Amino acid sequence: MNKMQLMAMAAIVAGAVLTPFGAQAQQAGVTRTDLQRHDLSASGREAIQVRVDLAPGVAFGKHTHPGEEIIYVLEGQLEYQVGDKPPVTLKSGDVLFIPAGTPHSARNPGSVTGSELATYIVEKGKPLLTMLK
């Protein structure tokens, strides 16, 4: 096997292994950095931590998760619309809990990048994020 074929095979294998961890496509102005993923003692559940950065003025559309989401705002400010509740704007140090399956969206109303640490307690094997229309 020549060097080019070996490199192509390595890229295919790496893609197959890493795709489930970072399967969500990146939206312009939104950066998702997968930090860790671990099985929990509760059967069929896993914990996933992701850093999400939203550029100024960027919105991330309505979506759901197959479990709970616990948010800690790291930097800037972020506005969340959760279910039918009025939007809430959080700043660095604020937290938010989103129940399993609850439609929600986020946007950065500020002039600097807004960042959150998102911790998900979700059903293992299901897509982490489902976009809604």
UniProtKB/TrEMBL annotation:
Gene3D superfamilies: Jelly Rolls. Residues 51-112 form the Cupin type-2 domain. Residues 1-25 form the signal peptide. The keyword Signal applies. CDD domains: cupin_BLL4011-like (cd02235). InterPro entries: Cupin_2, RmlC-like_jellyroll, RmlC_Cupin_sf. It comes from the Bacteria. Keywords: Signal. Pfam families: Cupin_2. This is Cupin. The lineage of its organism: Bacteria, Pseudomonadati, Pseudomonadota, Alphaproteobacteria, Hyphomicrobiales.
